[in-house]
Amino acid sequence: MISRRSVLQLASAMGINLSGCGLLLYPERRGQPLGRLDWTVVALDTIGLCFFFVPGVIAFAVDFATGAIFLPGGGVATTEPGTKGTLIKHTIPRHLLSRPKIEQVVSQHARQSIRLQPGEYELHALDQIEDFWSKRDQLLSEQS
What we know:
Structural class: mainly alpha
Number of strands: 0
Distance between the termini: 56 Å
Helix content: 40-55%
Strand content: under 5%
Order of helices and strands: HHHHHH
Shape: elongated
Largest sheet: none
Number of helices: 6
């Protein structure tokens, strides 16, 4: 016979594993603003809610609090090959150029908080804004 203690341990383990399904699947969505719901994450959180009520509630709470339950917004930059959007030029004087200053300028333009994590972005000097696409294509071909 299964003891009550082993059932509680199993429930705790499942609760930890199911808490915040969206955050576990999409950690890059942390901190994004409200938007359209990702129904895959909602379904996974609901499954957790059906099997284990408290972990399911925790999963929903974590995903809503972190923003992981929402689909990425339409203003997200893309580096998909073959896509070219409209570029906007912002000039920052060299003596003011820093990660916090870049975050501030991009945050103002995007109208949402932007945090650049070391190792997650690259800086390249461009002579002209039009050089962006050729530089991007060159970097993408080097990565392949």
